[in-house]
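quick q for whoever's on today - can somebody do inverse folding on this one?? i tried earlier but teh output was garbage lol. tokens:
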């Protein structure tokens, strides 16, 4: 291939962006199993983000100079996706979203103890030395983030006060007197035989010094800043519209998380329509189980009847494992291609569980050396109903997140497509996967089917409350009340979720918008192909290119329908 061909120019640009991203975000490099930067944490200053933005704009300028029409068909798809990713990231940086780096639901203060132990290898002396170097960098990492947050306060990027409730408690759990009690010291307590005995005492001493000399002081500094400056400077307003250029920022976020050109008002109306449809199905199920009272009375019955709740974390995990083993056996009926990488189940770490979501999925290592993991929240068991386990598990593991993400990592795609994704596709697929349970023999118990509808209702309500709070003037209490009136979730879960939407504008829209598009495309294919429609082939088409924007997915499905018609034409 000639150096100056459009294909070569595009390949060089993609390779340059990938290498730059790995250097700028060494934690991401570790996630994708590139271990060249395992001894460092990212830079987190205004200058770091400014350089990143300038670099992305330069890449964008050079990208549009490449002759797109001269690329091969597959390269044209890569080109379009790469261009979208650049535009999304340029928008995020230009709107200074990085100036709001912490909340009760997420942030660097939680990522380090929750994820660093998951993504790093601990097999050699060098691995441990890299880990110590990262711990030693933590104080610097905190100081730089505090600089961002101070700059945010000075320029109008103050967090909503509601999103900071409980952050202090999360920080205090990392401030220890004995390094052995720090979650980040755990790798030193059980070093594998592959770590030479002669180095163990040194590594133990360095680990203790890093925890007590960097990690604990870093969390102590962050706690002091939170209490003395950040909380007092937080805004009472909750909507993104109250941020600088906030309405434009929220419109950007809608496109960022849906890949569609739709307004807050359109999303809000779609949400109300879906809420009404799902509510009718839920009330029909109430009649099926013979409940004659009002919806709220039925919800209260579900929230208080002990038969719907596990009595221990182990019992909750066992119930989940049984559901997923059943799901594994049904997958070949709906999919031709399945990922090779396995998945496991773990509890969400105790320190972050109170303010965390019900469950989440953590992807496998890029080189296949670590499985994917479905994390379940076992804090406050009375808020974890068993009738929701089927829908939740199908979403987070299979045929939801694990099947889709692990398969994407195994596809023959450029690295930037294997390890980056569009939220509307990823979360839309996972919500679609919940509904696939109807075709897999799940939800036979009406209460379990009510749980499925409850989760769908949850995502429909998100369309209403996210747009309501960020664009239409809704209060936090109004959002909580709306979800309380229309879902069976506990007040703890509702409050945590609403505060997550406040802290993460637009992200909650991805689930329902993505699922509606996938269902729409499947229905279109079923109508067009009739008896020739093959659900396994359709699923392989949807998943076979990894995560893509919804409008691109629509074009792919339309081409596939035309090809299927032509084969029998």
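ok took a stab at it. sequence:
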């Amino acid at each position: 291939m000639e150096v100056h061909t459009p294909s070569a120019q595009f390949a060089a640009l993609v390779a340059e962006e990938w290498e730059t991203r790995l250097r700028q975000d060494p934690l991401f490099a570790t996630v994708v199993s590139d271990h060249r930067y395992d001894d460092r944490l990212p830079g987190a200053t205004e200058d770091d983000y400014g350089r990143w933005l300038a670099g992305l704009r330069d890449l964008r300028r050079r990208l549009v100079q490449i002759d797109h029409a001269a690329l091969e068909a597959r390269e044209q798809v890569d080109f379009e996706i790469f261009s979208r990713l650049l535009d999304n990231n340029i928008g995020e940086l230009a709107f200074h979203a990085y100036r709001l780096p912490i909340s009760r639901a997420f942030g660097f203060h939680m990522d380090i103890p929750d994820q660093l132990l998951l993504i790093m290898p601990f097999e050699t002396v060098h691995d441990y030395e890299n880990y110590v170097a990262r711990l030693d960098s933590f104080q610097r990492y905190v100081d730089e983030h505090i600089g961002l947050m101070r700059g945010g306060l000075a320029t109008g990027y103050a967090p909503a006060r509601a999103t900071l409730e409980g952050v202090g408690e999360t920080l205090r759990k990392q401030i220890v007197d004995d390094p052995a009690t720090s979650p980040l010291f755990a790798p030193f307590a059980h070093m594998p035989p592959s770590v030479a005995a002669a180095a163990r005492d040194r590594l133990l001493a360095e680990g203790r010094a890093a925890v007590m000399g960097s990690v604990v002081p870093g969390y102590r500094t962050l706690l002091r800043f939170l209490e003395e400056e950040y909380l007092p400077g937080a805004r009472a307003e909750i909507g993104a519209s109250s941020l600088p250029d906030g309405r434009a920022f929220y419109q950007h976020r809608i496109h960022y998380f849906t890949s569609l050109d739709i307004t807050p008002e359109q999303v809000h109306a779609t949400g109300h329509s879906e809420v009404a449809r799902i509510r009718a199905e839920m009330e029909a199920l109430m009649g099926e189980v013979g409940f004659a009272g009002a919806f709220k009375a039925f919800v209260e019955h579900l929230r208080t009847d002990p038969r719907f709740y596990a009595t221990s974390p182990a019992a909750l995990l066992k119930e989940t494992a049984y559901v997923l083993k059943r799901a594994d056996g049904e997958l070949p009926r709906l999919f031709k291609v399945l990922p090779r990488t396995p998945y496991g189940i773990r509890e969400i770490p105790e320190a972050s569980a109170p303010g965390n979501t019900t469950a989440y999925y953590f992807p496998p290592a890029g080189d296949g050396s670590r499985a994917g993991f479905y994390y379940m929240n076992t804090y406050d068991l009375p808020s974890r109903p068993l009738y929701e386990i089927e829908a939740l598990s199908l979403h987070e593991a299979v045929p939801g997140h694990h099947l889709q993400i692990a398969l994407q990592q195994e596809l023959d795609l450029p690295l930037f497509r294997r390890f980056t994704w569009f939220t509307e596709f990823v979360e839309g697929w996972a919500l679609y996967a919940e509904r696939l349970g109807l075709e897999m023999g799940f939800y036979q118990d009406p209460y379990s089917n009510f749980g499925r509808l409850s989760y769908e209702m949850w995502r429909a309500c998100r369309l209403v409350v996210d747009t309501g709070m960020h664009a239409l003037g809704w209060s936090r209490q109004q959002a909580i009340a709306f979800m309380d009136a229309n879902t069976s979730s506990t007040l703890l879960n509702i409050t945590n979720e609403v505060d997550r939407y406040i802290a993460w504008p637009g992200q909650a829209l991805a689930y329902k918008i993505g699922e509606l598009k996938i269902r729409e495309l499947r229905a279109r294919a079923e109508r067009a192909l009739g008896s020739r429609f093959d659900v396994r082939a359709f699923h392989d088409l949807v998943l076979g290119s990894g995560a893509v924007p919804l409008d691109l997915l629509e074009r792919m499905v339309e081409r596939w329908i035309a090809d299927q018609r032509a084969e029998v034409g």
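fwiw The chain has a mean pLDDT of 95. also The two ends are 38 Å apart (CA to CA). so keep that in mind when u check it
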